[in-house]
Design goal:
alpha/beta, Alpha-Beta Plaits, 2 domains, Aminopeptidase, 10 helices, 6-stranded mixed β-sheet
Length: about 425
């Protein structure tokens, strides 16, 4: 971007400092908690109304029939598109409008969007309503500074990212909204620090494992078969064999933090025997079922089928070595790792914008968890996609979540500069 134009765009964004704060606050004040998926339609309409005033054509797309969609909780998405003065590529900013539950431990009202000490507090402040607000301010300033901008600018607010994205980006990608020739470059303003370009993420496999036993009277457990004890045998193999094996695998992906550069597995939940409740009163029974959910995060160097086989091999081994051991395993969710080439246009344009705005080289990273790039890559077949936005990823899903106002402004400048470069360059 020419220096005089860059200065003009950045000055317009500085003038909108209070605007980006108020826009972030307005979005936070719409409690789009998922599950169940509250207030998606009002939030999508708020974004659409704002962008329509800036000359965008706006469409609302409900993901009918996906899990969770209902008339009470419609999976509503908004896509706003502005055609430029001449043909050119399309740069798309995508942000998810849903937020996770608030949880305990807050010292401020999670949906009051309180401003203090240069920060906006609230659920979704950094993940990722601040990012949506910064992207909107970025494109509005760019359009004002360069009214004859070529190409196409798009902004979307999509549903359900926190529960897999199936009612949002996945639904749209299946229908061509995130594929060429409609879209060329995608920036997702997830909170990964303003000096980082995130080019991808590890893979994930969620599965439920159930061990089976036989019910009997608790005073005579020898007549039964305890499913919880069978599960404990599996957990012991996880501890002594699987976890050490995972810790020894290190990826070439630039995943942050450093601990996520190895394969990991989390025991998400475990339950066996009598259902909880009943005022804590037990029944004298041997449990005939025990279930656990595993959350396995794997590397781009690993194959999903081998990841699954590794766990199944331990289960099959117990079936032969342990009397009465029986199990079932059910897949719940899986995502293949995704990584954009470091030399891709959107990576280079955003990295150059960071250097220009902040004055230091961008850090290229990958995310330990997944985000909607997975659907743009695997379903939309669009590789030129990154995450870049304001906020500190460590604060996501935490009590007293916040985004710094300076980061909102800085990231808006970076996104405006990157978009200009992509729209005006011959890529």
């Amino acid at each position: 971007m020419p220096v005089d134009l860059k200065n003009s765009v950045h000055e317009l964004i500085e003038q909108r400092r209070q605007d980006v704060v108020e826009l972030t606050r307005d979005l936070i004040k719409i409690p789009t908690v998922n599950p169940p998926g509250e207030n998606y339609a009002p939030c999508a309409e708020f974004i659409g109304d704002r962008l329509r005033k800036s000359g965008f054509d706006v469409e609302y797309i409900r993901a009918e029939g996906v899990p969770g969609d209902s008339d009470k909780y419609p999976r509503m998405n908004v896509v706003a598109r502005r055609q430029g003065s001449a043909p050119g590529p399309c740069v798309h900013f995508n942000g998810h409008i849903d937020v996770v539950e608030t949880g305990a431990g807050w010292t401020v009202d999670p949906f009051a969007a309180e401003v203090r000490q240069g920060k906006v507090f609230g659920r979704g402040a950094c993940d990722m309503k601040g990012g949506i607000a910064a992207a909107i301010i970025a494109v509005e300033a760019l359009i004002e500074a360069v009214p004859d901008l070529p190409g196409v600018l798009e902004i979307s607010g999509t549903a359900d990212e926190e529960s897999g994205g199936f009612g949002g980006v996945a639904y749209l990608a299946e229908r061509g909204w995130f594929s060429k020739p409609r879209v060329d470059h995608v920036i997702i303003p997830e909170p990964l620090n303003v000096d980082r370009v995130c080019i991808g993420h590890r893979g994930v496999w969620w599965a439920e494992i159930e061990t089976h036993g036989r019910i009997a009277h608790g005073s005579m457990p020898f007549f039964g078969d305890c499913a919880v004890r069978h599960m404990s045998a599996l957990l012991r193999l996880f501890e002594t064999e699987l976890y050490p094996a995972l810790a020894s695998r290190v990826t070439e992906m630039p995943v942050v933090p450093d601990g996520a550069r190895t394969s990991t597995m989390n025991i998400n939940s475990i339950h066996g025997g009598q259902e909880e409740g009943n005022d804590g009163l037990p029944s004298p029974c041997v449990p005939d079922s025990c279930r656990t959910i595993i959350d396995r995060r794997f590397l781009i160097e690993e194959d999903l089928s081998e990841v699954k086989s590794e766990v199944r091999a331990l289960l099959d081994r117990l079936s032969t070595e342990r009397d009465g051991f029986r199990y079932t395993m059910r897949d719940l969710f899986e995502v293949i790792p995704s990584m954009t080439d470091k030399n891709a246009p959107v990576v280079q344009a955003t990295a150059a914008a960071i250097k220009s705005v902040i004055g230091r080289e961008a850090t290229i990273v990958c995310s330990p968890g997944t985000y909607d790039q997975k659907h743009i890559d695997r379903i939309g077949k669009l590789k030129d996609c990154i995450a870049y936005g304001p906020g500190i990823v460590d604060l996501a899903h935490q009590p007293d979540e916040y985004v710094e106002i300076d980061d909102l402004v800085t990231s808006a400048k970076v996104m405006a500069s990157a978009a200009y470069s992509l729209l005006t360059s011959d890529q």
